[in-house]
Amino acid sequence: MVSPNLNDSDIPVVDFDKFLQGSESEKEDVAKQIDKAFREVGFVYLRNHGVDNGLVDECFEWVCILFQLSLHTSSDVYGADRSRQSKKFFALPTETKMLAPHPPGGSHHRGYSAPGLEKVSQHQYDAGEIAKLRETPDYKESFESGNPHDAAQPNIWLPESKLPGFKPFMESYFTHCSNLVHLILTALSLALRVPAPGLSPTHSKSLFQLRLLHYPAMERAQLVNEARSRINAHSDFGTLTLLFQDRVGGLEVEDPNEKGSFRPAPPIDDAVLVNIGDLMARWSNDRWRSTVHRVGLPPNLTSPATKKIVPERYSIPFFATADMDTVIDALPGCWDEVGRPKKYEPVTAWGYVQMRMAALYE
User: Fold this and answer.
1) Which member of 30, 319, 351, 356 lies 3.0 to 4.6 Å from 209 by CB, making a disulfide possible if both were Cys?
2) Which domains does the chain have, with CATH numbers?
3) What is the pLDDT of residue 160?
4) What is the SS3 assignment for 141?
5) Nearest CA among 150, 79, 68, 164 for reference residue 109
6) Where is the Fe2OG dioxygenase domain (predicted)?
């Protein structure tokens, strides 16, 4: 259910510009605010985050073209905003998008995935249980890319002639988001008093994932009756996630004080939503929360008397994880021998992430 007792302001909004350009005391204050948000909620909105708003808008233009026109839908379904059809990526025909197919399984997470291929599961690894979950696949399509210098997971791009400019733009956008991740890691290092050089070098290879997501329009009844899902309740499994949303809404975050109760996490203009993943929660000895979240009905469609069609939704998450050989063990400031002993055995970042990825596709 959606909690009636929570409101949008329960996820703190922090002005990150004071960390980027402020005094040392201002930087410490911002670091403390982010630390507090991650301890209490697991999420924080960052304003003035350093990724230019025009660049974010341009990325959404590419996303729209990739997905939109190939569905051959009418304006009755998608509403009045038809101007986006002049934009770039998800509007390509399916046969064109399949020129950059996501490989089978989850070990090479790159390229295009058609609606229904992926099914999010929350800490579920039994093959039989995963098969049951996949009977109601997530109704979305996606395109994944990563660090262009990552030889272990090379990107899978469309031929340049099919979508000129797409590859260089996404590589540039990747760099901007990667820089923001490293700045947030520096802020977290300051909050914990992690000795120099802090957490950023543990992500030195920037083994990150830029994901373009499109949730097609669908009948409201299908979502309410669970005949289809967008993304079921889950936590992310890396260290940090950046999320840029369109204005449709639908993201919900679990109430940290009431399991199974969710509240909206609406888009805020010119802000990025940042959340902790499972590896970072483990690394912090559960000081920071890896909060469960999902995509459901937009807030304006929760009443049965509203529209019968749930509008399409676009989002751009950017998933960060540590270098594959990084040993995830409790960080300084997150444990002590008396009151806060270590809860988890050490694990490498890559081994854990690959186990989680396999459950999505296999």
Assistant:
1) 319
2) 8-361 (2.60.120.330)
3) 94
4) strand
5) 150
6) 206-322
